[in-house]
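Sanity check. The docking grid for flavin-adenine dinucleotide depends on where the pocket ends up, so I'm generating a full predicted complex first rather than guessing from homology. Inputs follow.
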Amino acid sequence: MMATPESRIDTESIATLKSEMHGDLIDAKHAGYVDACALWNGMIAKRPALIARCANTEDVVRSVKFAREQGLALSVRGGGHSVAGNALVDDGLVVDLSGMRDVSVDPEQRVAHAGGGATWGDFDTATHAHGLATTGGQISSTGIAGLTLGGGFGWLMRSYGMACDNLIGAEVVTADGSVLNVNDSENADLLWGLRGGGGNFGVVTRFDFRLHPVHTVLGGMIVHPIERAPESLRFLRDFNRTAPDDLAVFAALMTTPEGDRVNAFILCYSGDLDEGQEVIKPLLEWGEPVMTQVGPMPYTQMQTLMDEAMPPGLQIYWRGEFIKTLTDDVIDTLIERFGTITSPLSLLLLEQFGGAVSRVPKDATAFVHRDAEYNVAMISRWEDPSQHDSHVSWARETHDAIRPFSAGAYVNYLGEEGEDRIRAAYGPDTYDRLAKLKAKYDPENVFKANQNIQPAR
Ligand SMILES: Cc1cc2nc3c(=O)[nH]c(=O)nc-3n(C[C@H](O)[C@H](O)[C@H](O)COP(=O)(O)OP(=O)(O)OC[C@H]3O[C@@H](n4cnc5c(N)ncnc54)[C@H](O)[C@@H]3O)c2cc1C
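Predicted complex below; grid placement will be based on this.
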């Protein structure tokens, strides 16, 4: 049972806000309150005083102003996937954008405009109808907002850059309730900050993305027995180093639903399909896979391939670290740590970067990890909340083992890990630039339920 917070806000003000909003205002007595507090990470149990389910930009402006007038802490909810649970804030007001999920596509200009609460499922469905796509998250329920604002990797990034590299404009409601148009010529400094600087500068009510011709891809999974992992991961490392940009292959150390520990290659080739068949031949021919399921499929199918494996509601503790070079030591450390998993739901992921991501200058966006070869995700998952300690310890110890090889942290994978980790995610130069931008657009740090950048003084 979830205890509900006592509201300290006067009922008259709440009634006024409710009457002015086009969307819904949800308080602890509302029948939808518990559902509105549910996040992807089932471990988060925050209890906001009010959830403003906004229907449009006007609602967002009203809600931000209301929170400030009432002295309430403020959070912003996009897709609700932040593992730290930053979409919600205890006793405060949540600007919930889940009612703003429209996506419109201009196929001539190859541009999509998406509401701040859209998911990648919403986005991919809309753009796929025109044979177009942009780099986006690999689980369809993830929000376009949080993912893009922190960088955003996905299957297409080696051809087209990160999600943030494809962000060409936005509408932003700032801390004083102003509505700003953001693009290359208006508030361009803010566009730089939105490309990796997180939700620090305001509520993004609309995202504009550049699109690319992508329709049918070659995708799927090749599964090797865990006993061959020392060789299969070395093979993949060497293969990936010369692979074309149109191919991305991630590796997972995981347990199948049948209980077998395996090393899976998950791949997506987004170029010419005939060429792709040739490119992936060595992957298909290596070793003796226990399962191979690879073939042409619509991009939207590729984008939902892993949904079932990543359901909402489990207890999650997640750590991440970029690595510049996938050395034998990193591979051996990962295999050794996987041998000690405390739950069959836990997994280790090697996410391949490079290609177009590495060709964007480091200072062009607030996402700086342009020369990483991989990101390592260390994901501890379990069902029983009483077993928290051992599963959290496994993720922390795995992280300690990987940290000596670290090239920095991915801001979108941070939990509540403290200011030093946020600084490390940006590096000193970018952090300082973000801090100055924060001082310009949110000097009082109204937007702090996030991986927070302190305003420069
Ligand atoms: C199952 C799963 C799969 C993932 N897959 C990928 C992946 O493929 N690639 C990748 O790069 N990352 C991935 N991630 C990490 C993901 O990028 C982050 O969790 C991201 O924060 C999710 O965004 P969201 O909008 O769903 O989250 P939320 O929890 O809603 O928001 C995250 C943060 O962004 C802020 N925010 C949200 N919406 C807005 C807005 N409109 N304006 C301003 N601030 C806002 C929030 O306040 C919060 O601080 C994945 C995470 C999960 C749990």
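Relevant for the grid: The two ends are 43 Å apart (CA to CA).
Also worth noting: The pocket of flavin-adenine dinucleotide is lined by residues 40, 75-83, 86-87, 97, 116, 137-139, 142-143, 145-147, 149-154, 199, 203-204, 310, 412, 449-450 (CB under 6 Å).
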